[in-house]
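Ligand: N-carbamoyl-L-aspartate. Inputs:
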Amino acid sequence: MPRHLLQLEGLDAPALTALLDRAESFIPAARGEAAAPASLAGKLVANLFFEDSTRTRLSFEAAAARLGARSLALQGSGSSTSKGETFLDTALNVEALGVDAIVVRTDLSGGPAQLAGHVRCAVINAGDGRHEHPTQGLLDCLTIRRALGGFQGATIAIVGDIANSRVARSALHALTTLGAKVRLIGPPTLMPKSFAQVPAVAENVSISNDLDANLHDLDAIMMLRVQLERAAGGSIASDYRVQYGLTRDRASRLPARCIVMHPGPVNRGVEVDDDVADDRRRSQILLQVTHGVAVRMAVLDHCLVG
Ligand code: NCD
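Predicted complex:
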């Protein structure tokens, strides 16, 4: 049976912690400071990215390379999807090339799970529509764990376009499972009502439209990009930064211990001011990218070796 990573929802705390521990052990190799075991030597990993990506695609390639695997890359533009080949047919043909794993990003929520029902190789979700982005959720958790020392008692805000964010969904599941309290903060038009209605989650989750009222006691603040490509554009006001941007003034009202995170790509001056994004004392934005390589090494190793 292949092991897949399709979502973080449903993974319990020991399973999440085991992946974080494995990722932690790969950090020196992810930084290029130590050699990793060639546990994936001879393996072939196909990266199928039907949506744009910089960090996720390259870090899957870096992770595979660090562990001795080879990567094949296919992007949506330039592939036969432009000739009408379906997502599933494309993936089945890639499997027929003999790959050991398919890493897939698609605008189709549930696309990777559908694919996993049809192939024998491992399937890793690199972001599916508004659903989940499990490796991003893991790297966010790893970053928080390393900065704060743990999750119990930590209060973490996720700010912005919650409704359209797969990053928010994966982080929410993982952080609450690991014992953190999460505040979802954003404009009413970008806030799903459903999160509040899930009783298991609601205990540790609060929802607010008021960023200013929530700054004073945070341990971490995760800013999200407004997902213009997912029709969020129509529902954001031109004063988004005024109400929901992490401006220099707002950052000065965060506790000194509070770290600043963003999955990238950052729209500077919209979600985060330049000064705040570049403040290496609290901004974790580039560290998140390095942790992403370690997490993807851990996930590839888990799915392909065990
Ligand atoms: C995120 C994504 O694609 O979901 N980016 C990423 O993977 N680092 C967030 C985003 O695009 O806003």
